[in-house]
Amino acid sequence: MSARTLIAGAIILFASIGLVSMLIGDPLALLQRILIFAAIAGIIYFVFRKVMMGGGSSGKNKDQKAFLKAARQSKKRYNHKKTAAPVKASASNPFRKKSHRKKSQANLTVIEGKKNRKNRASL
């Protein structure tokens, strides 16, 4: 066995002996320490996440929300147009001249982005 394995085994053995003795001697103190450790770990996790992710309402997150909103609206319009126009039976005159195609009635949604960023194509 290597020295690392012996040291790790000794640490685990002492930790388990301490845990069992604390559980037998004062279980309420053990529970209190576990809850305090969990609370501190949770606070550290949320602070770390807030700092590393650049805050809860970063520009990227706002852009993503705006994109999802526009996608839902587009999908809703597309599905609405599909179901709203029922297909007529071919009982009409087959010799009748077809009319010109109508212009698209696409409703476009502008997604706000970063206005002060330079255009890469012009560089």
Low-confidence stretches: none
Oligomer: single chain
Summarize the amount of helix as a percent range: 55-70%
Number of helical stretches of at least 4 residues: 3
Would you list the SSEs in sequence order as H and E? HHH
Q: Radius of gyration, Cα only, in angstroms? A: 33 Å
Q: Mean pLDDT, rounded to whole units?
A: 79
Structural class determined from secondary elements = mainly alpha
Q: Describe the global form.
A: elongated
The beta-strand count equals 0
The largest sheet is: none
- Give the distance, in angstroms, between the N- and C-terminal Cα atoms: 63 Å
Strand % is under 5%
What would your notes on this structure say?
The chain has 123 residues and is mostly helical. 0% of the residues are buried. It contains 3 helices and no strands. It is elongated and about 95 Å long. It has helices spanning 3-25, 27-52, 59-84.
